[in-house]
Design brief:
Layout (H helix, E strand, L loop, with lengths): L4 E10 L3 E8 L16 E3 L6 H13 L2 E3 L3 E7 L5 E8 L11 E5 L7 E5 L1 E8 H7 L5 H14 L7 E3 L3 E2 L7 E2 L2
Parallel strand pairs: 1-6
Antiparallel strand pairs: 1-2, 1-3, 2-9, 4-10, 5-6, 7-8, 11-12
């Protein structure tokens, strides 16, 4: 059996401290979970698909935003269940209140015969590094650690990336756009 792989993006911003953008999974299994339940926006990709392109696609599907700019490759991490997750860090800003996720169907309650729709992501938020390490799934903490190490080495601020969907700007100062 082929090993499952996922790809995602770890957005960060400096306000002035570094914050990372995480998403909370939707659906009844995650409804009451908080600490250790959040994730980078990510999803599975098939053999032959470029992982970075998959990460960008999944980010858009889970948030409604598109990202462009300088993607910093992070070392892949093997999750407790065996899945390998590839990730890229990128400096960008977007408004969590504007997140719009795709949805999935699930029989709920189990064995009820009732199919219900749930958002893949039910909320998103910016967290400082220490908060993010508490919120994120244990198998993804390494991405935050890699980011902080990388930022410590670089110290110079590159031009922030753009987080957008064609449409109106979120604010006059933010570099994110949202539209439908």
């Amino acid at each position: 059996m082929a090993r499952k792989t996922s790809a995602g993006l770890l957005l960060f911003r400096r306000c002035p401290e570094v914050e990372v953008f995480l998403v909370h999974p939707g659906g009844p299994f995650w409804r009451k979970k908080d600490a250790g339940a959040w994730s980078i926006p990510k999803g599975e990709f098939a053999a032959g698909e470029e992982p970075l392109q998959a990460a960008q696609r999944e980010f858009t599907e889970e948030t409604g935003f598109t990202i462009s700019g300088e993607f910093r490759s992070l070392d892949p991490l093997k999750q407790p269940g065996g899945k390998i997750v590839y990730a890229w860090a990128i400096e960008a800003d977007c408004d969590p209140a504007q997140v719009r996720s795709n949805s999935f169907s699930l029989e709920w309650p189990p064995k009820s015969g009732k199919m219900q729709q749930y958002p893949e992501v039910d909320r998103a938020a910016w967290f400082n590094i220490s908060e993010a390490k508490e919120k994120i799934l244990s198998g993804q903490v390494g991405f935050i650690e890699q980011l902080t190490e990388d930022l410590g080495r670089r110290k110079s601020a590159a031009q922030p990336a753009k987080c957008e969907v064609p449409g109106r700007p979120l604010s006059k100062s933010a570099n994110a756009k949202r539209g439908r």
